[in-house]
Amino acid sequence: MALDRLKSVAQHVTGTLPPPHPFDPLSNAEIEAAVQIIRQQYGQLHYNAITLKEPLKKEMLRWLENPSIPRPVRIADVVVVAPGGKVIEGWVDLKAGKVTKWLSLEGVQPLNRLPWRIYRLLSMFAGKIQRSSNNVRLVVFQQKICTKSIVIALMYYRPHMDDSQYSFPLDFCPIFDAAKQEIIHIDIPEIRRPVNKAKPNNYHVDAIEKEGGYRTDIKPINITQPEGVSFKVEGRVIDWQNWKVHVGFNYKEGIVLNNITYNDKGTERPIFYRLSLAEMVVPYGNPEHPHQRKHAFDLGEYGGGYMTNSLSLGCDCKGAIHYMDAAFVNKAGDSTTIKNAICIHEEDAGILFKHTDFRDDSVVVTRGHGTVQLEIKLTGILNTYAMNPGEDTKGWGTEVYPGVNAHNHQHLFCLRIDPNIDGPNNTVFQVDATQGAGEVGSKENPFGNAFYAKRTKYSTVKEATSDYNGATSRTWDMCNTNKLNPHSHKPVSYKLVSREVPGLLPKEGFLVWKRAGFARHAVHVTKYDDEQLYPAGRHVPQTSGEPSRGIPEWIADAILSA
Amino acid sequence: MALDRLKSVAQHVTGTLPPPHPFDPLSNAEIEAAVQIIRQQYGQLHYNAITLKEPLKKEMLRWLENPSIPRPVRIADVVVVAPGGKVIEGWVDLKAGKVTKWLSLEGVQPLNRLPWRIYRLLSMFAGKIQRSSNNVRLVVFQQKICTKSIVIALMYYRPHMDDSQYSFPLDFCPIFDAAKQEIIHIDIPEIRRPVNKAKPNNYHVDAIEKEGGYRTDIKPINITQPEGVSFKVEGRVIDWQNWKVHVGFNYKEGIVLNNITYNDKGTERPIFYRLSLAEMVVPYGNPEHPHQRKHAFDLGEYGGGYMTNSLSLGCDCKGAIHYMDAAFVNKAGDSTTIKNAICIHEEDAGILFKHTDFRDDSVVVTRGHGTVQLEIKLTGILNTYAMNPGEDTKGWGTEVYPGVNAHNHQHLFCLRIDPNIDGPNNTVFQVDATQGAGEVGSKENPFGNAFYAKRTKYSTVKEATSDYNGATSRTWDMCNTNKLNPHSHKPVSYKLVSREVPGLLPKEGFLVWKRAGFARHAVHVTKYDDEQLYPAGRHVPQTSGEPSRGIPEWIADAILSA
Hints:
Domain Copper amine oxidase N2-terminal (chains A, B): 21-102
Cofactor (chains A, B): Cu cation
Pfam family, one (chains A, B): Cu_amine_oxid
Oligomer: homodimer
Largest sheet of chain A: 8 strands, antiparallel
GO molecular function (chains A, B): copper ion binding; primary methylamine oxidase activity; quinone binding
Keywords (chains A, B): Copper, Metal-binding, Oxidoreductase, TPQ
Strand content of chain A: 25-35%
């Protein structure tokens, strides 16, 4: 079986089958081949992630320029957890069929693949623990929370399996040791809060039918594409109205857009080398223990790819749809598949493709007019906590339902942009709407009406770490200063609009502030560093200055939902 | 003829015909009736505007509460220009058939209805003046620009009547006296700029066909509503998914939304008494003479209603469409009609109705989810100016086409909101995303992660004049503090989101700064003053602290397009 896999991979690389595009995610065959190669050398291990180690940018740019030269070698980027919780990062050269890197990492923990497992493990205790109320302390272990593989479980209860658990938060937090696979502590607040007695919310069809059914006063609006769609898909490359984009996918960032180009009257102009959502930082604003601990790194800790739901039952898009699957590795080392992880379709508004159903219901949309947007819908999926009748939220949250305290939190979305505007040598300018110099009556500004778009070039990483300025409607231009627009004689550019950003609200020195790193700022620009930037598969340091080491070149867009 | 009109109006008010809703705009019959009544008393006059004098709010609220009581009297609000340019404002009681107010106003000028007339008048000179080059100075009058009815014409040239004139700006500005109906001066710059020789832009179908025709690579996306629309229209009241709204219209603001309510499980809850776009201020940022003069008040000076294009040829909306007309008065006093001034339709995105084609292509959209938005599309319709080959814009503009200098400008949209959230007694709070008090380690904020939505009540008009704060993602809540949400126990509220506002960029003391008044700020709240707020028909003071006296209760949303 495994040897068959190896053979089929061999066929890939020997060319008897059409080889994958160098940006294509690893296939199930490639993933299992990598596992076989590792097993032969290291035996049984717990697999955390296997993903494509993306080719070096300079190597890729050479190949994109001339696809007739040998394509970059396929390399699997592997993260395994050895007994005792030690994290190992490895590379497997799938052509040579051997491990080329095997590095045991210190001071990091792997991305957490256990939340649902822990939930099942703990939810069965919930009722009992509640009933035994204060005696629950008897079962508390005395062990300190200090090791690297600690998971804090936020507990919920479901009266019925289809009910929304967010209406039934529990007031205690079991502490789980992922390495030991056991509960080492249960955090219980001084003030106990009983299980919510409020009416459950259940949004499943049958429950809604029971409550009188769906509304009937809305007439259908049908959208049809009688001649099919206007885009073509070859492999994972979408071709739409002179735009081309390769759609990648990995366990951490989810969707990845590579090599976005525009055919300008016959000339293929590169625009972006790579676009992805690198991280989402979610600090909570309640200072009361244990809520200060709540600050998720949704991608670095859980994985945007891993949290993708299958759209195999179809998505809510209308018209003609094209789907793509996603391949992962499970703990045992078998390859798994999420059917229809990506949905590509065309909308009247000119949407090129759409990928939905992150755990936070984020929606990635690429529009035909040539800008790439990351639109996020927050649908109230946030950590809630129990409260007693009449309890004061003290402004740290809102009682959204009887006995349910929705704590203040931020969603800081870290967008990683690797511009390639008419080539890789791009420059970034900060642009501020600015009043002209000189007061009313002065020679240079006699009437005081002068204003202009002030452009400030970023020369160092330090000055390139900047925040949004609402007073100047600050934006950021990515330019190729060697290529001028024939009319304006200004550099050809794309503009980053990253507004409505209050910045990271927790104060300097706090854990999330250290971990969020560049995510504290509206924009951060790094000089290109191939090794550092890719692959996407990285681990969460305990208290580093970088957000889960998926270093965003750009940090874009934050929303406070209070 | 005129007496027939009077009779039909009489029939309205005596009830032999269904009477108009008190919010309905004046009908053609009512407009001509008002003119007849004025003529009998004052003879021939030049009519600038006749619009509904909206009933007093307290009177309307009484009637809305109990429509069986006598409805508010229909009153025409009239603006005429007497010989010599004197502006007179009058009220005509259409039931009593008499003039109840006739006020001669000082220091104001009427809204300008002449731009196209002036354009025609001057464009014929353009070529000649250009050819005679510097001798043109011979025709300049020495008269000063000081009277109240001065219009400065920004000149363009069209090689072909279908070409876009914005590619062919002329370098001189005739000064026109609207009262005298003559050109009193021609402003000619020291540096002359010849007529542009660049290739014309012509977007008409035949021109595009000549250039190879429209693209053929886009497949149709059809939207159909086989069972019709989900909304009902009775008179001018739209009923859609528990929402009700009266759609008014006047020559200045264009569309006006009145008495927006939501049927909450049988209870009709009022939300907004009135919503409109009250003004759009457009300052230009080029300090060089004569461009400091360029600052439009699109509604106060030209009229959003007057600038509405007829959609009689159909609009670009898909699916089932419902149209409404608009009635105006012309200079002579005859009533005129714009067919299909308003288009009401339903979109998949949940749009309730849509009104397009202001002169600046603004789009007013009401969405089903209960917020009222004003979305503005800027489609490059801005004043352009001529430039010589190689001339430096000095950053005050951008060469968007050879020889075409698009000057920096702002679009400040003044949205007037009259909230009526569960009743007329509403309060406004400023909401800022704010860090909790106390540094890391302090008792109240031990971990430094505390943050909350700080709410500041506006008690005086002075403190209610505020700007956007990007650092706190500032928003504004309109609340009924006497009505609490059953879950959150917070006042029922609607939130105003007015972001991306750099504020008015011209400096204090300059003409536009004085005239823009409250429009200088993101938000301004006035205590309710019936007389002052409505009717919409007002005039542009030369240098008042108010924006064209259509006092916005709220000033929302500005975009810098540089």
